[in-house]
Amino acid sequence: MKKCFFGVLFLFFQICLSQPFQNWKGYFSYNQIKDISESSNKIYAAAENALFTKNIASNDVNTINTIDGLSGQTISAIYHSDTFNKTIVGYEDGLMIVINDADGSMLNVVDIINKNIPANIKRLNHFMEYDGILYISCDFGIVQYKLATLEFGDTYFIGPAGQEIKVYQTTIFNGDIYAVTQYYGIRKAAIINPNLIDYTQWQVFDSGYWNGIVTFNNQLIGMNTNQKLYKHNGIYFQEFGTIGQPGLDIRATSNYIVVTSSNHVFIYNSSFTQIIHIQNTQITSIPVTFTCATVANETIYIGTNENGIVSSPINSPTNFEFIMPNGPIRNNIFSLNSSSSNLWAVYGGYDITYNPYTYLPSGIGSFGISRYNEANGWLNIPYSAVFDANALVRIAINPNDETQLYIASYFSGLLKLENENPTTLLNQSNSGLEGATGDCRINSTAFDKSGNLWMTNSRIKNGLKVLKATGEWQSFNMESILTDYASNDFCKIAIDKSGTKWIASYKNGVVAFNENTNIFKKISEGVDLGNLPSIDVRAIAVDNRNQVWIGTNRGLRVLSSTGSYNSDEQMKANAIIISENGVGAQLMGESFITDIAVNGSNQKWISTADSGVFLFSYNGQETIYHFTKDNSPLPSNVVNDIDINSVTGEIFFATDKGMVSFQGTSTRPADNLDAVYVYPNPVRPEFVGTVKIAGLISKANIKITDIEGNLVYETKSEGGTVEWDTKAFGKYNVASGVYMIFIAAEDASETAVKKVMIIR
């Protein structure tokens, strides 16, 4: 398969990144704070897989995410070095990223990832800087990192007989380095000892069970797993505080000790007197649990699991303020739907077997809804406002009234929103929907051209339903077409131009239905039954040439025409055969396909459960892009859903670790050439990118000439936008000047002329 990658290949080797990815945007959640660090003028917050900073003087908040070069993996620790003006980010998989705060460049350090130790013990837990060296506490031991040269030093395996043991935290006291371990107490060694790689040089300082250690006011302070705090008086540890819960974080600032548990933050002064106790129940605007806390510039900053950072002046510790960049409720977005001006997101869901009860380790998904637009940013509608509707899975926007939408629940029925407000929860008690209480499973939803909302109702006989524009309900019995309807689950639905519904299912392949014929037909597994590679169909789309693209858990098939539904013969979908190294192969063979989206040029975006996203030409013979977490800002190769803004061409990718978008150029074709425009215009010397000519009709001929009439570029539009790289037929940059753009319909029935100025 040919693979065309955009721009610079982003590899997980030691490589510096100083330029952001062009044409990409990040839409990350900054709710869940993993760690906090501080400098003389900033607070640094590590969310699940992105960062944000707050300037203490100006209150400006800035974000850093995969668009800037961060990994999409889960962050476990952050540290800012004022001395070296660098921010170090540690990850659960052992990756470390060093950010040069002077210019924003990033160094991906993969030495720990590449260490020959089990992958599940590479987590980075804590950073401690001493004398220009960063001591990194890991799940296997301690690693040195030299901040001046950005090179690793020694690795210390300090367990019995030199075995790998988890180290939570380190500190320096009276010339010794102290390490708190998971099961082997506190260990110490002389920091100047040149042979610390020898485990016998590390003494057992205390054999108890500890989970944190700091140095404060010239004393050693420990946090014990018995939920108490101790200071070492030179002979033994002496209790001075009680947490009442397992401690999560302990740190020492210049004037305070700050201790955090999930429900409490305690602050002690230099006399070890508790001066502040903040409980999460004091924060009444939204339920929160704590993760970490610090004090900077006499202000308390508390990381939460749900709502970013809570801050409060230390002299007024109940005057709370939330600090969090605008973003969605969480990173793991289950599905999306984009209209011309709004993007909607829901968080699901069900597991791979369509079980909503085991979607999360804690059980069913109980989340709100998010809406994004350029004018107002994110609006997050909380779970408390959606009538206890769980497992929200699909969004249908009324094409005739964008202020009205319906959200399917795979547990509670169908939620209606008007003007961004949930108004009604439709279920088996107040509508044509069916199912037991708490088991009304609606998934696929789609409006037809008459404004009727079609939907699937899983595990019942009348599995296809329609809510008509008049408010009437109608159901269609699917018992004759479904194998074991009582255990069948539906996925997505697509409606073609003739009104035929194409329905993806878990155990019955693709089901097709048109109410004008009142006939159900099926495309299933096996050559004689439809030629699908699997009856588990996860994605379906009707393209601009009336072909049905079908994505299964084991590959891709294409039905050549929607008109096949009207034939008496068994509908048959075929694989797309491509040449790979001179050998014929099936396109997307054996891939677990999660979604298919068709852009304005009839190209296909296809997402997968483990291989990122692809953009294929209209017939699948050319791979235009293949984006993964290793060569793009995709935070994960697990892509749940894709949606396209047909007006702007922006493509949204929802992954299990956050959402990003790519600015495509294949927008929906216009009806005429009245609104053609060119951007940017003028093109200034510092601009990096391409000139876009938008508002085009399909198959328009575009010719670009210099002011003297010399042709420098020509092309034909597929959708509503074309690009020009400001080169003369791709060979060399054109000179400064005014360039004429001549546009004509394929039949020359209408024309337009535009100008663009190039400044070199």
Automatic annotation (TrEMBL):
Keyword Lipoprotein: no
PorZ N-terminal beta-propeller domain boundaries: 43-203
Pfam families: Por_Secre_tail, PorZ_N_b_propeller, Reg_prop
Keyword Signal: yes
Keyword terms of this UniProt record: Signal
Start and end residues of each Secretion system C-terminal sorting domain: 678-758
InterPro entries in the record: PorZ_N (IPR048954), Reg_prop (IPR011110), Secre_tail (IPR026444), WD40/YVTN_repeat-like_dom_sf (IPR015943)
Signal sequence, start to end: none
Gene3D superfamilies documented for this protein: YVTN repeat-like/Quinoprotein amine dehydrogenase
SUPFAM superfamilies: Calcium-dependent phosphotriesterase, NHL repeat
Protein name, as recorded: T9SS type A sorting domain-containing protein
Organism: Flavobacterium paronense
